[in-house]
Write a structure and sequence with these properties.
348 residues, Glucose Permease (Domain IIA), 3 domains, nine-stranded mixed beta sheet, four-stranded antiparallel beta sheet, 21 strands, binds zinc ion
Length: 348
């Protein structure tokens, strides 16, 4: 019995000794080793970090918000996120969070967010914030700018910033006056200076009624409709040009085409004139509403009649050289409330 007790005591001592040894070894491990993450980028080891979430948060924050130096920086696109692997490494190994951050972000592409103000789908000015763009549009509206219907705002995400302009500069750059005065050099011509002051007048006969003005304008007024080419051909005389055969400034656009070529309605509307009229020869006038009319002159034949409704592209006449013409061509006019506007601002 005594022998048996001694045996137990010896085993107990041994057990205690083993436990103390184990604890000491564990203690050594804890003292000498620590958990750490190896960090790889595209399969390549780029360093070690102790605090995985701290480093990853810093990278994520950079990707989402950039470095905060530029207000317009929207986000940064980087090729790949790093991967982390838990491993036990000896104490004393150097972690290099900053270097890892650098390596992950160095090839990133910064995207900037800003706004463009467009006139007729063309980017004209750039501003930093949406409310600035809105203010510009509002100012143009207040000033009754002629192109206000064509002004739009576009959100931009680009890798490079444009030069921003002040509200005032933007407004003055985008503002379009309702009436553009004819240039001084042209004013010297007696016909033209008379034309500028000429009021609107109306002529009426069995072929229809025409509201006319000798005033011309090169301004691109929004007519609310799009015009198609009534004929295909060569432009032989432009709007507002002078020539030997004319006593006044040219109020239309001449398109040379063979005799008999079909003339199509530039837009849908109602025929308000269908007959001979002085220098125009055989004339068709189509009213498109809102005071907008298109004139087709020197026709050899007219296929439509007064009051008839026509649709865009419909055959209305044939090319000729009636009236004051030196060869077969279509003389096309675009008139708004009787004032002749440059057809080339709308078609050709
Ligand atoms: Zn002409």
């Amino acid at each position: 019995m005594k022998k048996f007790l001694i045996k137990i005591r010896t085993s107990l001592k041994f057990f205690i000794l083993v436990s103390i040894a184990t604890l000491m070894i564990l203690g050594m491990v804890v003292l000498l080793y620590k958990p750490i993450y190896s960090v790889s980028l595209n399969g390549e080891l780029i360093g070690y970090c102790e605090n995985k979430s701290k480093l990853q948060n810093k990278i994520s924050d950079y990707v989402e918000n950039g470095d905060g130096e530029n207000n317009n920086l929207a986000f940064v696109s980087i090729d790949a996120m790093p991967t982390y692997k838990l491993c036990l490494l000896k104490r004393g190994i150097t972690t290099n969070d900053d270097e890892i951050f650098e390596k992950v972000t160095e090839k990133g592409t910064a995207y900037y967010k800003y706004f463009a103000v467009l006139d007729d789908d063309e980017e004209k000015v750039y501003v930093s914030k949406f409310d600035e763009a809105e203010k510009i549009v509002k100012k143009l509206k207040d000033k009754n700018s002629n192109n206000i219907d064509d002004i739009t705002i576009k959100e931009k995400y680009e890798t490079e910033l444009e030069d921003f302009v002040s509200e005032e500069k933007a407004v003055s750059k985008l503002y379009e006056k309702k009436i553009v005065k004819v240039k001084k050099t042209q004013e010297a011509h007696p016909d033209l200076s008379a034309a500028i002051s000429a009021p609107t007048y109306t002529t009426s006969n069995s072929s229809g009624t025409l509201k006319l003005s000798n005033t011309i304008s090169n301004e691109k007024v929004n007519i609310g409709i799009s015009l198609i080419k009534p004929v295909t051909g060569t432009i032989t005389s432009r709007f507002a040009s002078m020539s030997r055969v004319r006593t006044s400034v040219h109020k239309g656009l001449d398109i040379g085409a063979p005799q008999g070529t079909t003339i199509k309605a530039a837009a849908g509307g109602k025929v308000v004139y269908d007959g001979v009229n002085g220098g125009w020869g055989n004339l068709v006038v189509i009213s498109h509403g809102n005071g907008v009319q298109t004139y087709y002159a020197h026709c050899s034949k007219i296929y439509v009649s007064l009051g008839q409704k026509v649709s865009q592209g419909e055959k209305i006449a044939a090319v000729g050289e009636t009236g004051n013409a030196t060869g077969p061509h279509l003389h096309l006019e675009v008139r708004i409330n009787g004032v002749a506007y440059n057809p080339q601002n709308y078609v050709y």
